[in-house]
């Protein structure tokens, strides 16, 4: 299966380029008579404000015989709310077909409107022109069905867990993690688990991990140690996730998904949303179990006990020195 790389596009961030937020496009029926009159007038004039010039004039009969609605570039810009310069850019990039030339005037049809809608959907998903051109080519060849690809892309791009950043008041924070010991909130802020916004607001980048930190603190695991452990997990799991994504992509249609259809690949990724995290939990639990058992068998637990005793003696000496 050919994989399309989604790249961020500066054009996608412009409010003038996304068709998903534009006014409805006129239908063929409502514009046919107006477009034919515009073509006849333009053919007689042989010029226009935004006309694209062709060296040879076409016969007038060809203009009259044209039944499909046609738009000059200004008409198309008005119908789609896309600036003329952007339409020309799409043409030069190879993602929009060239217009039909009648006389000295360039005309666009319904297929151009549909293609602009397609481009808008791809830009809404952050694709650059190079990636859009690649996808358009595959759609035209019949290698990719657009709505199936959009479904797969949506499946790959949507969140796997409902744990987005959340702005909390002090009361909401207390409700989330309960009453805490003095200094705990300050430790969370220093560790980056919380970000203070003003006097009575905190941003939690991950409310779920914030709750984990609170539970670990109850068990005697400091914020610093918990943050360090989270960093270790993130480092190794990020590498594993990248390798797994590539592995599944390499086996798409060949062991990953039923058959080689885009829909089957999308279904396989959907199933990973539940089985993936559960697999990580089971594998991590088994690995930790084996490592801790080995620590007991090799006598490393005695080293931990000696370290604790050493800290106790140091604390007692410090207390005695303070009394003196």
Automatic annotation (TrEMBL):
Coiled-coil regions listed: none
Ranges annotated as biased composition (Acidic residues): 49-59
Ranges of compositional bias, category Polar residues: 11-26
Keywords noted in UniProt: DNA-binding
Compositional bias ranges of the Basic residues kind: 309-318
GO molecular function: DNA binding; DNA-binding transcription factor activity
Residue ranges of every copy of the HTH merR-type domain listed in the record: 70-138
Keyword Ubl conjugation among record annotations: no
Keyword Disulfide bond among record annotations: no
Chain spans, region Disordered: 1-63, 303-324
Protein name: Mercuric resistance operon regulatory protein
Organism: Enhygromyxa salina
Originating gene: merR1_2
């Amino acid at each position: 299966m050919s994989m399309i790389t989604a790249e961020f596009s500066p054009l996608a961030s412009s409010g003038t380029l996304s068709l998903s937020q534009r006014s409805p496009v006129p239908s063929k029926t409502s514009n046919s008579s107006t477009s034919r009159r515009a073509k006849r007038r333009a053919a007689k004039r042989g010029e226009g404000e935004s006309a694209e010039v062709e060296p040879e004039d076409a016969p007038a009969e060809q203009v009259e015989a044209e039944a499909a609605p046609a738009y000059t570039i200004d008409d198309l810009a008005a119908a789609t709310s896309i600036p003329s310069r952007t339409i020309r850019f799409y043409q030069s990039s190879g993602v929009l077909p060239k217009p039909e030339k009648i006389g000295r005037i360039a005309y666009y049809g319904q297929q151009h409107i549909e293609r602009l809608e397609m481009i808008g959907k791809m830009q809404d998903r952050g694709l650059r022109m190079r990636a859009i051109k690649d996808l358009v080519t595959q759609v035209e060849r019949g290698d990719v069905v657009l709505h199936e690809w959009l479904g797969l892309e949506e499946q790959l791009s949507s969140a796997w867990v409902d744990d987005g950043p959340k702005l909390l008041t002090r009361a909401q924070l207390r409700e989330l993690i309960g009453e805490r010991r003095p200094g705990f909130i300050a430790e969370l802020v220093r560790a980056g688990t919380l970000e203070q916004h003003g006097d009575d607001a905190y941003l939690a980048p991950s409310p779920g991990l914030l709750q984990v930190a609170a539970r670990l603190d109850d068990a005697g695991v400091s914020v610093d140690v918990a943050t360090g452990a989270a960093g270790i997990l993130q480092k190794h799991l990020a590498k594993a996730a990248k390798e797994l994504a590539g592995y599944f992509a390499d086996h798409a249609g060949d062991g990953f998904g039923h058959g080689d259809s885009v829909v089957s690949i999308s279904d396989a990724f959907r199933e990973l949303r539940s089985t993936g995290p559960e697999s990580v939990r089971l594998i991590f639990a088994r690995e930790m179990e084996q490592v801790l058992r080995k620590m007991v068998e090799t006598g490393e637990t005695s080293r931990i006990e000696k370290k604790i005793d050493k800290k106790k003696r140091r604390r007692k000496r410090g207390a005695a020195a303070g009394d003196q």
